[in-house]
Amino acid sequence: MKSAGFQSVGLAQLMLSYVHNLNTNMKILVINHHKSCNAERFQPWLEEAGFEIDNRLGAIGQLPQHVYYSTDSLAHDHFAAMIVTGGGYNLDGSGGAWWLPHTGKLMREAIQQDMPVLGICLGGQLLAYTLGGQIDGCHCQIKSCTKPFEYGLTDIHLTQAGQDDPLFVGLGRDIIMHENHQAYIAELPNGAELLARSDRCPVEAFRYGQNAYGIQFHPEVAADTIDNWSQAKIQHLIEAGVDWPAIVARRNSSDVDANLTASRQICNNFANIVQNRAK
Fold it and tell me: Which residues are catalytic?
């Protein structure tokens, strides 16, 4: 199924060219939770735009004690933006994820300085949780697919606020994004703006303040990532009632191209948000 309302590849290419020609020399902090979960295709796209990526792995104690906003990439623990990636961990730090409460504190520090923040999947949930939102579901194996669990390419519906937001400019009303989650944001924190939802999940994207964003989906992950999912995971999803043949069919359809184009647009838009904050 094609993404309705998407406004041509040309706009995404134009915006990439615009961002690429900026002399940014700015550093983006990327907080990862596991060595296999990172910014993936966002990293080369942002590097093409002139940004330096500083990857830190929370599980081995690489996180800074504090973060400070700066456009100077040489300043220690100073960053122009923050990205917090995904993973399967308890937000309160139980179960071994001891670094997550500190990550939440760093996100709050960034917001206080109007530093652009992008939380992806777990990162988006952590942003909502840190600000007082409610998270439901868990990162354990699911027994049924009756809750808003989502896997593979999924239709995302932007609200009017989302369509008008700088993170989603040029994307129209509907986009196709990769999903892989059991936990989900059930209630947004006070003051947050809902930017997107799906047929199954009430919150797919939100903004808090001027420049802090949480998204449930994965624009940084390519659609063919499901090719690498283990047979054990696939079998478990099938037993829980997930329509695995439908997921594979979408991965092999033209939806992959629509996903790539929209994902790159989102990355370019975030780069522009970072650049505009620096002005």
Answer: 121, 218, 220
